[in-house]
Amino acid sequence: MNFSTAFMICSFSLVIVLLAAIVSFKSKLIALLLITISILCNFFGLSYNTQDVISSAKVTYESIISEMEIEIAELQREEPVIIPDIYYVNAEIVEQKLIKDNVYEIRFMSVDEARVYVWTSETEYTDDIPYLLTMSSCGTTDNGDDYVVVVWKNMS
């Protein structure tokens, strides 16, 4: 039963109730019978419609569950690609300049691949010692988005 059928049943039962109200002055038994029929029509019409709603919700729920199970199975088949997020770079200072009050921009060059990394600090660093940079790859293979997390001085 669709919504329009249920609406027609409810409308029909409303007409019966109104008819019962009019007739009730003449015969109490007929009015009581018509009101009872109206209530039963509403009850059966709404309960039948409710069953349709419940069954359609169940079908929707089951389809969602089956789609999720398929996606989970596909994800379990794939091999995860693990990209190490943290790596280390041996570096030396190539440039250090004061940007504003007590803020320095320090450029480090890696010893192995001659790549430049930028670090901002509130203290000036010593130029003549090696440093170890702790780097974050941001979980990607693109080196362009990597950034310096920590700068370690070589104390030896």
Task: Report what the structure shows.
Helix content is 46%, strand content 27%. It is an alpha+beta fold and 156 residues long. It has a five-stranded antiparallel β-sheet with strand order 3-2-1-4-5, with no helix packed on it. The mean pLDDT is 76.
**Low-confidence regions:** none
Rg, rounded, reads 39 Å
Would you list the SSEs in sequence order as H and E? HHEEEEE
| Percentage of residues in strands | 25-35%
Reported for the largest beta sheet, the result is:
5 strands, antiparallel
Strand order, largest beta sheet: 3-2-1-4-5
* Total domain modules: 2
Distance between the termini: 85 Å
Shape: rod-shaped
Query: Roughly what is the average pLDDT, rounded to an integer?
Result: 76
Q: How many E-type strands?
A: 5
The helix fraction, in percent, is 40-55%
Sheet/helix structural class? alpha+beta
Tally of individual helices: 2
